[in-house]
Backbone:
């Protein structure tokens, strides 16, 4: 039977935070909902890589071997990098870090708790086709946040509907930078990379040296695809072998604007160089072409005015 | 700090490479150093190596998180390297002390500071114009200054390799220190040994580096210089930095230090010794480093809280 790390129990007092319950569990961490001393909810992320079993009972984290301790401490470095980069990002569409501390022989990151649901839940709950308006609204705002992330030379590397949170007011928040890696230094990531099939770009499987903004762009494209289809596109590693992905433009022709569908297909290109190279380029592509009818009528108006002036 | 950096050292047509180069940076300070071990003397490459290592080690000890006085650091380290070469020769009962030239640059708080001994050079270019440089401690430079020979005679002069100041020499080195020089985005800094500057005139270097991105121009310059050196080509070494974000490309080649931990360093020493250095870089965090990282993140959170 596989042994797993034990989560902190509900009611556990962690410094001045009281743990309420576990929200999620990832490859490197457990996220809890907790309350601070004023009773406001926060999300607390505990660094606890699941590949190294470190806590089978109680609260204190212990490495099972000297070798594990080294890996554990090394991974902590990545956790710090995530904290350092996120601490500087104060953007409405990116999860906000409130505190960072050490306890139980590991480290914790306290984040603002957001109310709402993930885009994943939204997709699963929906009754009918998601409207183009809704998809555009979510992704335009999300891309603003992602642009801010890239400006700080951080890549998210795990963009998927489950990591996009929709507040009750409809605004999106980019969550979980657990896979995020600093790309600014010469050193390459050494811990085993994580990826989610369907949303991870092909270079995440085979070619970690080619990671870049375009890698997150693939995740964005896959997430948009999932909004339309209600399922993830074919996994990139399988696509590389034999590409069965049908273009969005073919599947949803007539149901969404050509512009939106073309953007989805563009983001999902297998060759990193063929995708939008930056979030800005992607935003521009989405923003540039407003619905066609209106544009024509404006042009028509201008023409009419011009001609009337010439005649006069 | 944001900058794009390149370094490379080549043997040229010589049997061994006596040049050593390195750069290391923390979040708010950058050191670059080039040493050209003197052939014709015992263990030139040993001298160059000792010098470069000493610079890197002392830098990492003193830059906490920045150097208190960069110019004093440069001067002190040169003197210590000179002394270290003397004791090395003593320890191994060498007849002659190993000798080396040295040029080193520290950039912090937006200012460049440099120091040199011998004929390894530093150039600072702004928009293709030379705005700062070192002056060789060489016999030919002295002759040029006195008006005895012209600048164009230097390359062919029989005494062009004679220098009057070096680390490890019999007399104490003459160390030239620069002024504290403010940098602007787009400024280009070049450190090189005579193997490069003797075949690539300064205006050509300026041209290469203003018309192309550093990571493209610098390797091309090295290839060209090695070709021009021909069958008698000397060792050649180059460190090139474009300060600020790379303006000529959109490539993610710019080094950004803002998310490094305080007290953390990234170091590149030329290939021969990088291999052994890499292991050291992978060591795990100490308790002290963890505490520092945490307090730093906390203060960043405070700072960016609206």
Residues:
């Amino acid at each position: 039977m596989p042994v797993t790390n034990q989560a902190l129990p509900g009611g556990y007092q962690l410094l001045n935070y009281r743990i309420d319950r576990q929200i999620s569990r990832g490859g490197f961490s457990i996220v809890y909902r907790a309350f601070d001393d004023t009773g406001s909810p926060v999300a607390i992320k505990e660094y606890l890589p699941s590949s190294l079993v470190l806590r089978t009972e109680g609260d204190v984290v212990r490495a099972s071997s000297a070798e594990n301790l080294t890996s554990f401490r090394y991974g902590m470095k990545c956790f710090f990098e995530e904290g350092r980069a996120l601490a500087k990002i104060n953007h409405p569409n990116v999860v906000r870090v409130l505190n960072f501390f050490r306890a139980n022989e590991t480290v914790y990151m306290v984040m603002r708790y957001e109310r709402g649901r993930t885009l994943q839940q939204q997709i699963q709950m929906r009754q009918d086709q998601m409207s183009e308006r809704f998809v555009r609204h979510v992704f335009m705002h999300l891309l603003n946040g992602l642009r801010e992330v890239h400006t700080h030379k951080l890549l998210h590397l795990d963009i998927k509907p489950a990591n996009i949170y929709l507040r009750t007011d409809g605004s999106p928040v980019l969550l979980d930078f657990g896979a995020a890696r600093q790309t600014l230094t010469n050193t390459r990531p050494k811990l085993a990379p994580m990826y989610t099939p369907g949303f991870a770009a092909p270079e995440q499987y085979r070619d970690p040296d080619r990671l870049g903004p375009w890698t997150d762009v693939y995740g964005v494209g896959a997430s948009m695809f999932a909004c339309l289809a209600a399922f993830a596109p074919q996994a990139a590693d399988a696509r590389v072998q034999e590409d069965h992905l049908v273009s969005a433009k073919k599947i949803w022709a007539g149901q969404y604007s050509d512009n939106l569908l073309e953007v989805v297909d563009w983001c999902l290109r297998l060759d990193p160089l063929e995708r939008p190279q930056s979030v800005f380029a992607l935003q521009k592509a989405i923003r540039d072409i407003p619905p066609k009818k209106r544009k024509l009528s404006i042009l028509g108006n201008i023409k009419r005015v011009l001609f009337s002036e010439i005649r006069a | 700090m944001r900058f794009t950096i390149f370094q490379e050292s080549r043997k040229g047509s010589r049997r061994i490479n006596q040049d050593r180069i390195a750069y290391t940076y923390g979040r708010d300070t950058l050191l670059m150093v080039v040493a050209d071990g003197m052939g014709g003397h015992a263990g030139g490459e040993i001298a160059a190596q000792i010098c470069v290592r000493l610079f890197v080690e002392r830098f990492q000890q003193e830059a906490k998180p920045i150097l208190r006085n960069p110019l004093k650091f440069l001067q002190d380290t040169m003197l210590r390297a000179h002394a270290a070469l003397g004791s090395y020769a003593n320890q191994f009962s060498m007849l002659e002390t190993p000798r080396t030239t040295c040029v080193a640059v520290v950039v912090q708080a937006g200012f460049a500071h440099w120091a040199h001994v011998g004929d390894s050079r530093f150039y600072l270019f702004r928009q293709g114009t030379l705005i700062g440089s070192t002056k060789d401690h060489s016999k030919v430079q002295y002759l040029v200054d006195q008006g005895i020979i012209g600048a164009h005679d230097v390359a062919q002069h029989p005494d062009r390799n004679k220098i009057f100041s070096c680390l490890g020499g019999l007399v104490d080195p003459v160390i030239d220190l620069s002024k504290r020089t403010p940098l602007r985005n787009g400024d280009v800094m070049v450190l090189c040994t005579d193997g490069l500057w003797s075949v690539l005139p300064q205006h050509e270097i300026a041209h290469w580096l203003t018309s192309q991105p550093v990571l493209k121009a610098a390797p091309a310059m090295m290839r060209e210089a090695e070709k021009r050196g021909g069958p008698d080509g000397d060792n050649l070494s180059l460190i090139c930095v474009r300060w600020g974000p790379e303006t000529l490309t959109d490539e993610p080649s710019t080094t950004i230090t803002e998310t490094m931990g305080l007290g953390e360093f990234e170091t590149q020493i030329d290939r021969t010794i990088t291999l052994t250095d890499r292991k050291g870089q992978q060591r795990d965090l100490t308790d002290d480093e963890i505490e520092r990282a945490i307090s730093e993140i906390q203060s960043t959170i405070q700072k960016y809280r609206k």
Q: What stands out?
A: Residues 13-112 of chain A form a domain with the Phosphorylase Kinase; domain 1 fold (CATH 3.30.200.20).
